[in-house]
Amino acid sequence: MPNIKPVSDLRNYNDVLKDIVVGSPVFLTKNGRGRFAILDIKEYEKNQATIKLLSKLIEAENRIKIDDDWMTEDQVKEKLGV
After folding, report:
1. Which residues, 6+ apart, have CB-to-CB distance to 3 below 8 Å?
2. What is the DSSP string of the chain?
């Protein structure tokens, strides 16, 4: 269940911060509408790494679609010196 609090609760920010754990961010509302999300730095870094990985995978997939020049297993081994 999401942890939702009004932004006015930041007056006592220690109470808000103690509720933040990995996998359970605190969502802040302003005038009854969602406005901010506060999350643990580990979760933020994980999200950023996931975004970066997905971007690289999309880039590689697009490159494969454009350049249909595949290497054989032997060519890969030779290139890697294995």
Report:
1. 19, 24, 25, 26, 27
2. --EEEEGGGGGGHHHHHTT-BTTB-EEEEETTEEEEEE--HHHHHHHHHHHHHHHHHHHHHHHHHH------HHHHHHHHT-
Q: Which one-letter amino acid corresponds to residue 30?
A: K
CATH superfamily of 3-39: YefM-like domain (3.40.1620.10)
23-81 confidence digits (pLDDT tens):
899 999 999 999 999 999 999 999 999 999 999 999 988 888 787 777 889 989 999 99
Domain ranges of the chain: 3-39
Alpha carbon distance 40, 6 (integer Å):
19
- Residues 4 and 25 sit within 8 Å (Cβ to Cβ): no
Q: pTM for this one?
A: 0.67
